[in-house]
Amino acid sequence: MNIRPRRNRKNEVIRSLVRENYLGPEHLIAPLFVIEGSNQKVAIKSMPDCFRLSVDHLIKEAQELFDLGVRTIALFPAVEEKLKTPDAREAYNPENINHRAMRALKEALPEMMIMGDIALDPYSSDGHDGIVDPKTGEILNDPSLEVLAKMAVAQARAGADIVGPSDMMDGRVAVIRRALDEAGFSNVLIMSYTAKYASAFYGPFRDALDSAPKKGDKKTYQMDYANAREALREAELDEAEGADILMVKPGLPYLDVILRLKEHSTLPIAAYNVSGEYAMVKAAAQNGWMDEKKTVIEILTSFRRAGADIILTYHAKLAAQLLRK
Ligand code: PBG
Fold it and tell me: Ligand 1, residues 202, 219, 280: which to mutate, most atoms within 8 A of Cβ?
């Protein structure tokens, strides 16, 4: 035997020399949930160790993440039921909870990058990402675009550095880019949810925000999980429409899609390690069935190996703590 691959695994020094991928806290984005009130830290049953935070706690959490090297957060508001309407107008109210939180974060921590989610579901009484036709139940594409554009501009005004359209309406990136530029926000990035699949893995997130669709599902706008080539089509459109970063979501069951986009595009690629993926790890760890710390680092490294430059993950804080050691 003159070829022995095990020689390159002989000890940790050799393994470090030949290691192909590196995971650092600078690659991570931490999603955080914000709610009304003060001194509120409300547990999310299906997402152990994740909380709905009032703005004061949100700032504390952001500061801790920042000090650990996680310097971008993605903000998701839990909107009071009485503010949800069919036209989702609360989405672009400058005084909504999302915008108040963004302003407070920017003031407290100007160097933290803030990403805002662009989709109507947290503000829609229908729980859909776009406007619903009351007669047919159809999710209306072009009328939704106007609201999404207003929402993006409102978030930019409140201090968002990045906007993430997660709605999967056709043409949204172009419309949002134009609206941002016209309002003087040509420096705000668009991280497009390019390949966002209609997935069961969003369940815990919808619990966190009470944002599940009241009727039907999201299959007429989110992608069919049987498809991968279609993700390239979405990527070409988002790229042509002016996206700065392309995202794949969910993450772990879609590593093949991450790799394809990475090979197909010259844009940076992000992966969203979503709530259901998080819940599975937490549940197994709580039962003593898996080692949480090792599992988390292995999963996040697998995203880097698949080609993700950036990872959105609810494990961000734990991972940053572990990577520091
Ligand atoms: C809203 C949105 C969702 C997620 C992020 N933005 C839910 C959905 O599309 O139903 C899911 C995030 C997660 O599960 O962690 N459009």
Answer: 202
